[in-house]
Q: What sequence folds into this?
C-alpha cells in the first residue's frame, strides 16, 4: 500500500523559509515523477511544482518560480520542497502527489503571517 507522509509545515513570518518533506512507503519513488500541490482556504487545489523520476527536470507554477525549489532524494525515498521569501498568499495545505499512482499525502499546513 502506497503511503505518502508530508512534514515540515509550520507558522512562519513573511519573508521566512521552510522546507517540506514527503516520505514514501510501499513504493519506490525513483520510478515516478512527483508533484507538489497546495490548497488555500476558499480556493481550488493549485499546482506548485513537479520533478521527473531521476530529478533531472523540474517544472514550477509561474507565480512561484525563483522562490520554491523541488528536489528529491531517491535513496531516501523522499521528496522535498524548499520555500523561500514566503508570502501570506502562500498560506495553504501542501500535498505531495504521484500522478501515475493517483496517490496523495494527507497534507501539511503552512501559515505565513506576522
A:
Amino acid at each position: 500500500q502506497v503511503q505518502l507522509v508530508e512534514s515540515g509545515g509550520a507558522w512562519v513570518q513573511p519573508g521566512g523559509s521552510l522546507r517540506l518533506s514527503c516520505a514514501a512507503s510501499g513504493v519506490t519513488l525513483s520510478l515516478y515523477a512527483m508533484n507538489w500541490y497546495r490548497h488555500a482556504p476558499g480556493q481550488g487545489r493549485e499546482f506548485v511544482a513537479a520533478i521527473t523520476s531521476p530529478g533531472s527536470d523540474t517544472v514550477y507554477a509561474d507565480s512561484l518560480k525563483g522562490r520554491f525549489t523541488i528536489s528529491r532524494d531517491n535513496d531516501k525515498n523522499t521528496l522535498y520542497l524548499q520555500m523561500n521569501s514566503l508570502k501570506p498568499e502562500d498560506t495553504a495545505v501542501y500535498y505531495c502527489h504521484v500522478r501515475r499512482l493517483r496517490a496523495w499525502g494527507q497534507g501539511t499546513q503552512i501559515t505565513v503571517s506576522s
User: Anything to note?
Assistant: Residues 59 and 65 are 9 Å apart (CA to CA). The radius of gyration is 13 Å. The chain has a mean pLDDT of 96. The longest strand covers residues 18-25.
